[in-house]
Amino acid sequence: MPGWSTSQLADLAGTTLRTIRHYHDVGLLPQPERRANGYKSYGVTHLVRVLRIKRLTELGRSLTQIADLGDGDEHPREALRELDAELAARIERLRLARAELAVVLRQETPTDLPPDIAAALANVELSPQDRAFTVVLAQLLGPEALSSYTDLLTRYSRDPLFVEFDELPEDADEETRQSLADRMRVHPYVAEMRAAFPDPASMYSTSPYRAEFVAQTIGGAMVELYTKAQLDVLVRMTT
Fold first, then answer.
1. Which segments constitute the HTH merR-type domain (predicted)?
2. Does the pTM of the predicted model rise above 0.70?
3. What are the phi and psi torsion angles at 76 (to 5°)?
């Protein structure tokens, strides 16, 4: 038996004293015999074990997963096959992420919306509140409803009437609110939006989330994003 010290074992394995001690602490490396002077004396089996642990961690196995393999040093075929499948899935996720990133970089689109929606709305001048609301809807709606909503937004323009709504003072009087609601109600774009989504349920009926959750989330988002005066106008539009 060679009788290496802890530092010699670490050097041979290309690792550190701290790592060797950690392997001992978590039970991955058995304690060696000690010499007459009390110092540890490591042998070939310890070196093999450390190299095996090091190699498996480099391949992506956690120390917990390595511990689950047991104390034997046989070839962990099934564990490596499982690791290979995990790495393949990770590579695919990274490939898709890079593809999305390429779209964002190429079109200089913001990253708050899915790339396809951000690209579709690249030339649409939404208010910060409307854009934030669209971000929320993108997380809530089913694919078909979201596609219809996005298509409608591509035809949105900063009509003076919508600018008036965006700039509506919090203390706008009753007459101002009612007048704005009446004019917005008959605006062609609003009519088109209401035709596509005649009631809230028609918008989120295919959502992956429960209808109650979607309704609460949309309501909460509107209260956070729009002023009381603006919300009052929206309510008046539906009455």
1. 3-72
2. no
3. -80, 70
